[in-house]
Amino acid sequence: MNSSVMETSTPLVHEVRVSQAALEVRLDDGRVLSVPLAWYPRLAHGSTRERRQWRIIGGGIGMHWPALDEDISVAGLLAGLPSGESATSLKRWLAGRPPNRALQRTSRPKRKAKSRKPSRAARR
Prior knowledge:
alpha+beta, NE0471 N-terminal domain-like, 6 strands, elongated
């Protein structure tokens, strides 16, 4: 029996976007991979600015976020692998970070705006 040999190569990173909910990676072969941001806790805890500051590593086989000390490979994304960081390691990393003011602001309950109309007692 003859078998054909298929040459395979890992596609390379072309573009990266990180939203509040997902990591989206556009590959040079046209595919777009989107995974939940919760898969990568360091990205999830990063500020918008930190998430925007990424660079291609290994000629396109992965991405690196310097401010978050996070590396993600295309191979890992294609295999559906979330971060392999332990809870202990993440906790230690979080303890060394300054508080994320943007996350604190969004977690506070909104105050009700004071009404500009006079109360019933004041109108009498």
